[in-house]
## 1
Amino acid sequence: MTHTHHDGATDDSLGLARIARRAAEAVADDIRQAFTETVEVEHKTSEFDPVTEVDRSSERRIREILAEATPQAAIAGEEFGSTEPTDSVGSASLRWHIDPIDGTHNFIAGIPYISTSVAAEVEGVIVAGAVHDPLRRETFWASDDQAWVDDSVLASAAEDPGRPGVLTSQPFQGLRSTGAELEELVEICRSFGIVRNPGSFALQVAHVAAGRASGAFELTGAAPWDIAGGIAVAQATGCTHLRLGQAPPGFGDWASHSYLITRDPAQAAEIGPRLTRLMTHGEVPEVFAKFMAI
């Protein structure tokens, strides 16, 4: 496996990518074993927000690995919130984002589409990450300028348009559902050729980055740690990532509860503003200005 180093930052990024891959894969055996068993389920905020002890134990293990490898880093995770390094409270430029089991509903139901996501953010920018599929034993991972599936380099979006299809778990969440808006959403989905509703945000984005679909979107359904690892892989393959809403407080510009990832920038330019209008009934945000000119 080769890697072109443009500068010191890229060297650091490749190192972080390797740490992210190792951490994401470290909990795979436990998750695979638990997938075959009946697990006890709790609910954090509502019946739609489940958690299992495997989620918690997996995040604890990942946090241990990251803290050992990068003691200067802050860590934000799905189950245990944000922690700062003890020797530099509030000043860490490196922050890890963890989702130990993205697709917990699938995990509980025995549906084999789940992933573990780990990503590194430096000064508000995602620079490396990994998304591991424990059931297929497959890892999508990336530095700031190259992405792999296991040890094979992924083709760039410019070189490969990918297979038709859009991946979306909750296309109607966040939609103000008048008849006209529902019709437009259906039209948008059909423009991708086929709609798949798999149920793990991080893996959806990674599959777009790998060319297995041409796009993915969510309307208010995702948390930043859900998609951080996938965004790392998507960025490195040259996919277009549009944030369809404001970043949650304390996160960089990459973060959003609503997003669109496509392999075709022209498609993003056409569809991104339409999705945003469906949610807000307002003006197209400034973030789309450069795409509107395409």
## 2
Amino acid sequence: MYAIVEIAGQQFKVSKDQKVFVHRLANEEGSKVSFEKVLLLDDNGTITIGAPAIEGASVEAKVLQHLKGEKVIVFKKKRRKGYKKKNGHRQSLTQIVIEGIAATGAKKAVKKEAAPAVEATEEAPKKAKAPKAEKSEDAAPKAPKKTKKTEE
């Protein structure tokens, strides 16, 4: 069983007992957090897709620790001008472990009443395309294209 969930503005594919690094969360270390914005849910081959999220579904997680990511070097240079700037950045991250995926949301089932509705549309007259304008006999035929010819 896995789910695609939106955490801190990013989408993650998560499953039970998986550790994930996400952008810094306001929760304290050791606290539990629940994510309600579940976009897709796969329960042993049964896929439920939300529009945009599945109502009633949630992902439960536990905050393990807050840390910083690896340093990313930002280097700017303009040639022949003597301009160089070197900056570093370390992103603030939170490590969480997924404890469970709750799928209490109502699953959308295909209604059997939809089939007669399709038949009803087939019985209705289809829209006819507008007829193309026919060439009138009064209109003069187009002159042939002129090509450049060299006379010798």
